[in-house]
Design brief:
The chain has 2 domains: 117 residues, Aspartate Aminotransferase, domain 1, CATH 3.90.1150; 194 residues, Type I PLP-dependent aspartate aminotransferase-like (Major domain) (Aspartate Aminotransferase, domain 2, 3-Layer(aba) Sandwich). 35% of the residues lie in helices and 18% in strands. The chain has a 7-stranded mixed beta sheet with strand order 3-9-8-7-6-4-5, sandwiched between helices. Strands 1-2-12-13-11-10 form a 6-stranded mixed beta sheet, covered by helices on one side. The chain starts with a strand and ends with a helix. The structure holds 4'-deoxy-4'-aminopyridoxal-5'-phosphate. 4'-deoxy-4'-aminopyridoxal-5'-phosphate binds next to α3.
Length: 336
């Protein structure tokens, strides 16, 4: 049983398979490092999160000048949309934030018939597009894109900024980070909220062409991260081996949960992360979600009109909670 503070306040007692959160807590080293900072929080941390920026720079082999750190990647994504999002192209379904902050946008649909896979070599971007967004691995389906066609896309569309959201890259997929120094129209964002289990600490970063990084850094708060957040981030990044091992564990739980749903007649789609899409039709996903909420289990119906009402995105919980979720679903679907 998990006890969770919901966005906007309030406490929820139950099982949450909802916000693409990692069900595993931060690693012990992160908790210890953050805890040690608490008693020193009368002091500012180093300006612009310099030590974390240095560590990320060393680990990625990317100049510090290209790195921007802020309190969560959502904040960074909003800033990028504010600056560059005059004409946006999305690969849909996508992370719900993007349609919301884009307002109007053009789209390339990923189709259930292909398991939401897509060959980026076929991507056609309308003339005048200022920002094209690729989420890799993609939310809500959890699949990855083959990034081999990216350099060609960047060359063919010099007027378009390509934003690769690598929020889930710690779980699977091929990073585009190493291409940033070579292409002036490539932006990459990342977060420690997902594979690294630090969502509540709010740590995001971007790897950008120098002009973009300079612009965002010069408008940033001098102390974008609280001391405990910075310490937790550094401790976690120094234990990538643990994060990798946990990613395999999460993937196994996810596959197990998907297999159980399939055994109940539910269609599931391929994923390489710890969440996946399922089609419950002829059941209505919103109806099921309401009935599950009555049992203190929170789940997200997809609400994408192009896909029909049966779709849900499911994030694995811990195995014990997954079992309770499946038992509750069985009862609800059997009409008990
Ligand atoms: N990108 C994607 C694809 C996400 O799913 C999320 C959160 N669900 C974010 C970015 C934002 O994460 P955060 O603000 O915690 O860094």
């Amino acid at each position: 049983m998990t006890i969770i503070m919901e966005k906007g306040g309030g406490t929820f007692h139950g099982i949450k398979l909802l916000l693409c959160e990692n069900p595993l807590p931060p690693i012990d080293e992160a908790v210890a490092a953050a805890g040690a900072e608490l008693a020193q929080s009368n002091y500012y941390t180093e300006a612009y999160s310099a030590p974390l920026r240095r560590l990320i720079s060393e680990q990625l082999g990317i100049s510090e000048r290209l790195i921007h750190i802020n309190a969560g990647s959502e904040l960074i994504l909003r800033q990028l949309f504010d600056r560059f999002g005059r004409q946006v192209h999305l690969l849909t379904p996508t992370y719900v934030l993007f349609p919301e902050i884009a307002g109007r946008y053009t789209e390339t649909r990923l189709s259930p018939e292909k398991g939401f896979a897509y060959d980026l070599a076929n991507l056609a971007i309308p003339t005048g597009t200022t920002l094209a967004v690729i989420v890799n691995p993609n939310n809500p389906n959890g699949g990855t894109f083959d990034m081999a066609p990216l350099p060609d896309l960047l060359c063919r569309h010099p007027e378009t900024l390509f934003l690769i959201d690598e929020a889930f890259i710690g779980l699977a997929g091929e990073s585009a980070v190493h291409l940033v120094p070579k292409y002036p129209n490539l932006l990459v964002t990342r977060t420690l909220s997902k594979a690294h289990s630090l969502a509540g600490f709010r740590v995001g970063y971007g790897i950008f062409p120098e002009a973009v990084a300079d612009d965002l850094n010069s408008h940033n708060d001098a102390y974008p991260l609280a001391r405990p957040s910075q310490a937790a981030a550094m401790a976690t990044l120094q234990h990538e081996d643990k994060i990798k091992a946990r990613a395999s564990q999460l993937h196994a739980w996810t596959e197990e949960l998907a297999a159980q749903l399939r055994s109940m007649g539910v269609s599931t789609f391929p994923t390489e992360t710890y969440f996946f899409l399922a089609d419950f039709s002829p059941y209505d996903a919103s109806g099921l979600a309401d009935r599950l909420r009555d049992r203190n289990i929170l789940i997200k119906p997809l609400n994408d009109p192009a896909l029909g009402p049966g779709y849900m995105r499911i994030t694995t919980a811990l195995p014990e909670d997954n079992r309770r979720f499946v038992d509750a679903l069985r009862e609800i679907m059997a009409g008990v």
